[in-house]
Amino acid sequence: MKININNIPEEGLDIQTTKDRNWLQSIFGDVGESDFTLDEIHITCNIRKLQQSVFLNGAIETVIHMTCSRCLETAMLPVSASFRYTLVPAKAEESREEIELSEEDLEYGYYEGEIVDCDPLIYEQIVLQIPIKVLCMEDCRGLCPDCGTNLNLEACNCASDRVDERLAVLKKLKLTS
Ligand SMILES: [Zn+2]
Ligand SMILES: [Zn+2]
Question: Is 148 helix (H, G, I), strand (E, B) or coil?
Fold first, then answer.
């Protein structure tokens, strides 16, 4: 999504758009592949311009599909995030220093020439929503480390064996104390 800053009227520009599932791939192109996929992405964004600075204030809604770190099945992470960016021209070295980085919820970035490319910013916002540990559900039981059974779907006998071993150790401890 590229916006020519000359097309931003004084009262600002309101954008509502939906990106389809191919959007992610279109960003990566031939460079590589993302380790997640996305449902449709619903984007609303208000764009304003003040002199050379461009202000984006928007929201994203989508669903991230990623591998659950415990059971390796697909985890679906609904995302609803709002974002704010202040963009300044890439070459204006002086104005970079003038920017006060006091407001934590504001993100800063740069645009080249007269074109603001929102795609990398949207991608960044989506990636920010991915938790460090991705789980298909909060209490995902994961795979049995011994036999690989998906313990969300079925039980295996390894676990009960392990519990028995632990109990045996406990019993021994009790006997010796
Ligand atoms: Zn899982
Ligand atoms: Zn097992």
Answer: coil
pTM of the model: 0.76
Q: Which two tokens stand for residue 17?
A: 């758009």
Ligand closest to the CA atom of residue 66 = 1
pLDDT digits (tens, 9 = 90+) for 102-121: 455 568 888 888 999 999 89
User: Given a cut of 70, is residue 44 above it in pLDDT?
Assistant: yes
Q: Which two structure tokens, joined as six digits, stand for 88?
A: 């300044």
Q: Measure 71 CA to ligand 2 centroid, in angstroms.
A: 13
Residues with CB under 5 A from ligand 2 (ion): 144, 146-147, 149, 156, 158
State the pLDDT confidence band at 33, using cuts at 50, 70 and 90.
Answer: confident
Taking CB atoms within 8 Å and a gap of at least 24, the contacts of 86-93 are 86/53, 86/54, 86/55, 86/56, 87/53, 87/54, 87/55, 87/56, 87/111, 87/116, 88/52, 88/53, 88/54, 89/52, 92/52
> Measured in angstroms, how far is the CA atom of residue 21 from the centroid of ligand 2?
37
Ligand 2 center to residue 152 CA distance, Å? 12
Residue 162: band (very low, low, confident or very high) from pLDDT cuts 50, 70, 90: low
Distance between Cα 174 and ligand 2 center (Å): 28
At residue 90, the pLDDT reads: 84
